[in-house]
TrEMBL record:
It comes from Actinomadura alba. Residues 262-299 are annotated as: Disordered. This is WD40 repeat domain-containing protein. Residues 275-299 have a biased composition (Low complexity).
Amino acid sequence: MGEDRHMRVLVALIGAFSLLGAGAAYARVVPDPGIAFTISDSRVTESSGLALSTRHPGVVYTHNDSGGSAAIYAIGPDGRTRATLTVSRAYNRDWEGIAVGRDQAGPAIFVGDIGDNAGGAQPYVTVYRVPEPARLADQTLAATAFRLKYEDGPRNAESLLVNPRTNRLYIASKQFGGGLYEAPANLRADRVNVLRRVGAAPLLATDGAYAPDGRHFVIRTYYAAHIYSAPGRLLRIVSLPNQEQGESITYSADGHSLLAGSEGPRSPVYRVPLPGDASSEPGSAASSPPAAAGDPAARSDGSGVRSAVLLGVVAIGGFFAYRRLRGRS
């Protein structure tokens, strides 16, 4: 097996053990998901994030991974590109996540240049904010750049979220001991903003998104979607379809399903239905109480999650031991 094959085996082991370790209180295997649409634009070969438009029904935004152009693609429900939004005063070093929030004038798109595959080489990361256009057409949008750094040192990350209630920005790191980091309430473009850890994040987190009503949020891995009721409060783990390299996720407009995408040319985006307790209900967001202590939804680091981490470590250890034995033989 080549290195790519070894990595796929490793990721599969971690995904399987994570779902097993989560236990019945958390894990859900959903019915066979259907394909919502297939991204048909030949320029989009490494879709690394998805964000639901707040202005254009049925439209999601995506972008390419590192080395791509500084462009956002507006994809319609048929998978065709409705508009290409070129971001001026921006550079795609390693774009990994996208979310929709607000600026002073109205809806805005946030794009996260937050990848750090070198493992701590970047002293800070950059998030670009552009206004969400009222009319979908090819155009150039001026970006406001925000520099951010983690309070506990550089991290590799691929998940960018914006809370629709508060417009607060969050980043979930990807490596072992991953965390969810909260940005300041008011981002400043004239200084470095400090990201503060507010909760745990699953191992190998590749994208995240808030539900349209802000009641829940999701952080996905290659094989599962972790639904939270608040930072640090895990509600459910939902299995995801097997994808080439599952790196993007967002909610459907009604909040009852997830849209899960993948890197690769002509990549399908699956519609994954959510169980009732993890689904959004229109009009209930403002009155939704926080999870009570002792409730499964309030346990971010309970026995199920600890078991998942432990089994993941065992899987990784076994994987590398296997490789070492193969090398000796």
